[in-house]
Amino acid sequence: MKADYRDKNIIVIGAGKSGLALVRHLVERGARVTLSDRRSAEQIAGLEQLAGMTVRYDLGGHTLELFERADLVAVSPGVPLTCEPLQRAQDKHVPLLGEIEIASREIAAPIIGVTGTNGKSTTTTLIGLALEARGDQVFVGGNLGEPLINACAACCAEAVVELSSFQLETIERFHPHIGLLLNLSSDHLDRYPDLESYYLAKLRLYENMTATDFAVLNADDPGVCRLTENIMAQKVWFSAAGRTVAGLVRQGGELVWNWNGANVRLPLEPLQLSGEHNVENAMAALIPALLLGCPPEQAWQAICSFTGLAHRMQLVRRLQGVAWYNDSKGTNVGSVVKSLAGLVGEVTLIAGGKDKGGDYAPLRPLLEEKVTHLILIGEAAGRMVDELAGTSEIHHATDLADAVQLACELTPVGGTVLLSPACSSFDMFPNYEERGRVFEALVKALPETEGAA
Question: Which is the catalytic residue, given 143, 218, 278, 332?
Answer without folding.
Answer: 143
